[in-house]
């Protein structure tokens, strides 16, 4: 891509004009959210059909494997049945896949030099990170809705608004993994970032009790340090009726801070080379 083409692409994406090389940084920075840049990122997401299909198909398939047993519809867990319990867990897993993949896409953009080109514009680093997280959350919402629809069709039931609250919390809680995806996107090479993160997310799901119950043994103690543990406890609370423990809240806040600061650190270090 020539310099003129690159400048045109950057201007089309952000609505701003790249600064000439060596120019002083006196241009006013844009706000925290750039509408045109957000629209471009959403279109780019929808064009990535492989990612969209993978994140929207895998979680419902896992739900059908683990939770489609007809006996589960008649077994209760708190305010709902076992089918609903497994559906909520798979909705969280789907949101994890979607938001992590959305955040990790920054790895490909780095390899293509896109983030460095954006650095030549008045676009703030915080705007770039916020936009990437929002786009990842859009895909996460789609994953939650698809799993919820399949679960309801398979007989997931619960009293009151327990299912709605659990699915909403699954979506909101997945923001932790959007930050995780961004952090990993800056650390891992573009050519195999998702090949690495896919198995890692599956292991985190197992370790956090999303696929199988943890019980009361040593694995339950180890799980308390896993990023999926706190989110899973909070997401299931409206359905099970169990109180959210302080350790679960600390787990979520702690990992969110670690991943968020890690992504910000790697972003500054990456763009500092411009």
Give a description of the structure.
The protein is mainly α and 274 residues long. Helices cover 71% and strands 1% of the residues. It has 13 helices and 2 strands, in the order H-H-H-E-E-H-H-H-H-H-H-H-H-H-H.
Short description:
The chain has 274 residues and is mostly helical. Helix content is 71%, strand content 1%.
For the secondary structure, the number of strands is: 2
Mean model confidence by pLDDT? 81
Radius of gyration: 20 Å
Total of helices? 13
Poorly predicted runs are 21-28
Strand order of the largest sheet: 1-2
Percent range for helical residues? over 70%
Q: How would the global form be characterised?
A: globular
How many strands, which pairing sense, and closed or not: the largest β-sheet?
2 strands, antiparallel
* Helix/strand structural class: mainly alpha
Order of helices and strands: HHHEEHHHHHHHHHH
**Percent strand:** under 5%
Distance between the termini: 18 Å
Write the layout of secondary structure elements.
Layout: H1 3-14, H2 35-47, H3 49-67, E1 76-77, E2 80-81, H4 82-104, H5 106-112, H6 114-119, H7 125-153, H8 162-173, H9 175-187, H10 193-207, H11 218-223, H12 227-240, H13 246-271
Helix pairs in contact: 2-7, 3-4, 3-7, 4-7, 4-8, 4-9, 4-10, 4-12, 5-9, 7-8, 7-9, 8-12, 9-13, 12-13
Describe the structure using short key phrases.
single chain; 274 residues; mainly alpha; two-stranded antiparallel sheet; 13 helices; 2 strands; 1% strand
